[in-house]
TrEMBL record:
One MF term in the entry's GO annotations: cyclin-dependent protein serine/threonine kinase activity
Protein name according to UniProt: cyclin-dependent kinase
Catalyzed reaction equations: L-threonyl-[protein] + ATP = O-phospho-L-threonyl-[protein] + ADP + H(+); L-seryl-[protein] + ATP = O-phospho-L-seryl-[protein] + ADP + H(+)
Source organism superkingdom: Eukaryota
One family name in Pfam for this protein: Pkinase
Amino acid sequence: MKELDHENIVTLYDVIHTENKLTLVFEFMDKDLKKYMEAHGNQGALDLKIVKSFIFQLLKGIMFCHDNRVLHRDLKPQNLLINNKGELKLGDFGLARAFGIPFNTFSNEVVTLWYRAPDVLLGSRAYTASIDIWSAGCIFAEMCTGKPLFPGTSNDDQLIKIFRLMGTPNERTWPGVSSYANFKNNWQIFVPQDLRLLIPNLDSMGLNLLSSLLQMRPDARITARQALQHPWFHEISNPNPLMQHLADPYQQQQQQAQQVQQLQQVDPQTYR
């Protein structure tokens, strides 16, 4: 994890070995995204400017992981950490795995159920970086609404909740889907729903990005690098344009007081 040195990945400072314990020393972060949404959201739903900043930072962290051939495999709001500067960082790499050539076959026991990709739920064990992209889409939607997108209670229930919104897959819409171990021929047939009915406050560009992240077929999902180039992010000129907006109010007051003090030194008559 020390090799994953990036502004949107929590920093591991030290690993302390003792006779009976292994202690990991990480940088301090104020809260996780779930708690942030509870504290600052409207019934959990965040302002869209904050959503845009957080999903942008999340995708930057994911892109860095994937560029370094690492799958996180457990992205969820509780594993995304926020500091008082409004910086979001990926944490908890306990399920992370390296991927590469030759192609690895992994366990399908990955990712908290609500954020698990349909290909994994269907029994795929030869998955790609696209599983992290699906999780990012689920988190994106949850930040917009304040509610989990697919709060399933079991593997089958999770699939049904996904199908109700995204449509039941078949060989025409997802070639090869019937070969998955958990595929069933007797599933109820659902047609895809319009995401704007679920998230009416998200503009058309944002909905287009969300749809690109939440593609049922793993090979159809956008990559993190492609997502960061999406037009929805064109107004963002730095990784965290909302840093001042999200900063701690006390910290902002201190900064303002320092600025006034500096101005008084320049022109004491004007800035009293």
